[in-house]
Amino acid sequence: MPTYTVTVATGSQWFAGTDDYIFITLVGTDRCSERTLLDKPLYNDFERGAVDSYDVRVEEDLGELVLVKIEKKKYWVQDDWYCKYITVKTPSGDYLEFPCFSWLVDDKEIVLRDGRAHLPQDDKTSLVKQHRQKELNFRRKTFRRVHSTREWQPGFPMSIDANAHKDLPRDIQFDSEKGVDFVLNYVKAIDNLCVNHFMHMFQSSWTGLDDFERIFVRIKNTISEYVMQHWKEDFMFGYQFLNGCNPVVIQKCTKLPEKFPVTHEMVSVSLERDLTLEQEVEAGNIYLVDYEVIDGIRANRTDPCTMQYLAAPMCLLYRNVKKKILPIAIQLGQTPGEDTPIFLPTDGENDWLLAKIWVRSADFQYHQNITHLLRTHLITEMFAIAMYRQLPAVHPVYKVRLGRIQIDYLSKPQSLAAGIICDDAVSSPIRMEANATGGGGHVQLIQKAMKSVTFRSLCFPDMIKARGLDCKEELPTYFYRDDGYSVWEATKSFVSNVVHIYYTSDEALQADEEIQAFIKDVCSFGMQDFDHCEFPKLLKSREELTEYLTVIVFTASAQHAAVNFGQYDWFSWIPNAPSTMRRPPPNQKGMADVNLIIESLPDRGRSSWHLGAVWALSQYQDNELYLGMYPNEHFIEKPVKAAMEKFRKQLAEITSSIKLRNEGKKLPYYNMSPDQIPNSVAV
After folding, report:
1. Which residue of 40, 256, 571, 632 is surrounded by the most CB atoms within 10 Å?
2. Where is Ca(2+) 1 annotated to bind (predicted)?
3. What is the pLDDT of residue 128?
4. 560 annotated ligand binder
5. pLDDT score for 221
């Protein structure tokens, strides 16, 4: 009697094991095996991390083995099970691998194909065609798009229909370990930072700028300490636009805006070349930061005891002869006039400092809501849901996805509408009272910012070039750009290798109905066919597909790492990145003093919430997987494994180069180093 040896691997994450009954059916081209219970006498099967083997006997050879059907049935109470993979040794001695990497919940069954990737046009038999279509039909029912404005905020990227985190499909729910890790990190932050005493002291101002050190000194961090010591300096202010947490807003100024009427006489003392301001602009030495998108956003009004304020400032920056970026003019509003003065480095020390603080506060709002939440989390979620809906597990593009994209429901706009600023893992504990865009302003801000989200703006080289910052000679210390280029090119090379393995021609891509449906889903449903978005609705060449997939991988990994994990570095010193301002922006010069600055900055309670959150959000998980790591390998083909190994070697070389550059630097930049880039974002 022919015997097939079945080996089953259970996941090692929390609660992965099960006591439920597990049945298997082997499906061959000639016939199927009997439905067989996988059970060993006096043995605890399917424990967490276990690899168990069983014999399945059949009366006749099954022919070529094409499918494996796994069923889970309740034993006592429903007990979810995470299956990593199944291998089958055939009677002839061949080994077949069937990747799973999925949860089986309730009385569920799952049908697996072997680990080889197949394009839809490559499937010839009705058996595998039917399996492919059945899987997609099931996915589309499971990963439903929201269908009403009651469930989703208009103007946001469209996503999944779920009323709570528990309603999400089990495979994309946030891992229990990571959720617990985040909570523990936050609790640890509160303890380490010794801020418990201040947590509920809302409305209680600090006594002076040095007083902020009382919630700062417990955690040692080279960059954050350097920021604390030098945050008032113009060099530090300008440097952050290049390599801080939000290095995506600075742009070369090719023409002075009419709404920002800076004259040569105002800034001549700050210019180091024998040129007028207009000539400096023409020479490419002037840069602009404009937070126009914040203009008109409603400030937080959730705490009746504390007024909170927003501003939409503009800042003119100068590249001096040492190629450092320095601020030379700040206007704290979009409409020039007597009540909107232009602040200058030659003004009083406190006037200039308060103006810079207002810019930093606006930058914090822009970073949290647009750069981070919208342009990494929500955009990645949009791609992920389209992928789950349109690509079966056997499709090579589904397999090349960067790790398993998980969704934290609390980063969704349903929760955002309630006024919570959210992030990785679970909801960020930056409470809505502690943030100037809480209580609805953040929703308005994201809706406005969506108008600037285009496909080309997600392509890293295009984004850098569009802002006029692509010349390394002009800005030799723009490390975010340089490291981003390296990681982008390495990722693109890897993706291109995989694409060319499976698509032998552009015609093969054009004939792939599933990948074309995925591309259309992103544009028509994810981006809701917004006129401005310029997302493609179809792809005609392998080069286009390579760029498209590189955008997805890069956004979910490198871009997210660049704007997330440096939050404690740059945001922990509260005056350098206030989450809110408690006094309106000054409407005339000469009115700022230390007391006004202190009264403008967040109070003790809000500062404590802020500090604990940015520390927790900047921590890596204990089981973090970094770019290039693929422990859940959905591929079994040797050419793909070779491409993965080449990718890892390229990333290692980039990491070594960055470490060498950072040696001896007071402000090392490592947020784009591959060994610091998790291979996927929790969205």
Report:
1. 571
2. 17, 79-80
3. 93
4. yes
5. 67
**Secondary structure of 255-287 as H, E, C letters:** CCCCCCCCCHHHHHHHCCCCCCHHHHHHCCCEE
Residue 579 has which token pair? 């989450």
Q: pTM of the full predicted structure?
A: 0.90
In this structure, are strands 51-57 and 342-343 parallel, antiparallel, or unpaired? unpaired
Classify each residue of 466-495 as buried b or exposed e, where b means 16 or more C-beta atoms within 10 Å of its C-beta: ebbbbeeeebebbbbbbbbbbbbebbbebb
118 in a known ligand binding site? no
Contacts of 41 (CB under 8 A, 6+ apart): none
Contact between 28 and 66 under an 8 Å Cβ cutoff? The reply is yes
What lies within 8 Å, CB to CB, of 17 at 6+ separation is 10, 46, 47, 48, 49, 50, 81
Cα→Cα distances 311→71, 327, 330, 336, 356, Å: 58, 18, 12, 13, 12
CA distance 142 to 136: 10
Q: How far apart are CA 206 and CA 204, in angstroms?
A: 7
Provide the token pair at 644: 């993965």
For 136-162, letters b (16+ CB in 10 Å) and e give: beebeeebebbeeeeebbebbbbbbbb
pLDDT at 155: 79
What is the model's pLDDT at position 107? 84
Residues lower than pLDDT 50 in the chain: 148-150, 176-177, 198-202, 402-404, 407-430, 683
Q: Does 372 appear as a known binding residue?
A: yes
Matching residue, tokens 């049908």:
111
Q: Is 49 annotated as a binding residue?
A: no
Residue 212: what pLDDT? Answer: 67
442 among the known binding-site residues?
Answer: no
Q: Quick one: pLDDT at residue 613?
A: 79
Is 30 assigned a ligand-binding role in the annotation?
A: no
CA distance 153 to 495: 33
